[in-house]
């Protein structure tokens, strides 16, 4: 659950925009095509009164007191049990690391193609990983099924506060160089994790003029079923 003070931590319009994105990427229909996003369960406007408990005092994220009567947006999302940021997750093998990056790439590509999605704030803190017993994870990319071997790890992309989806709800069907550059920059955030330097070098040396992350990139060798 994510709780935001409105207005204060976030404006009403910003909260509305974030919830709109969550509804799209977290919908049951989209998650059948892309399991890398959190399931959206609902959002509610709630009102709190500090007078109901003399010991209670609402504070914002900076620790400053809020009014006795305050409004909050409570956003309910899927709970990822055991989920940890990639900087804290104990990756044990290169296959685990490689699977994580490939799930990130295909997850972002599918969202960009289907919804015109742009995360806007992707970092090691806004992607989490958890252990899984699933052997593969499936995506639908431009009508084609893509199955990736998990190697025992599962990715979730989180925190959509700065995310956007295109107004027409559909991205361009052609994956232009600019799109590739955005996706590469997203992946490079993950390459900052120790152990991924070789993959980072592979991406930097990849020919952008003939870039096609799926299925031609060497990044996916051995992971696609």
UniProtKB/TrEMBL annotation:
One of its GO terms (molecular function) is ATP binding. Residues 1-225 form the Protein kinase domain. InterPro entries: Kinase-like_dom_sf, Prot_kinase_dom. Keywords: Kinase, Transferase. Gene3D superfamilies: Transferase(Phosphotransferase) domain 1. It comes from the Eukaryota. Transmembrane segments: none annotated. This is Protein kinase domain-containing protein. It comes from Caenorhabditis elegans.
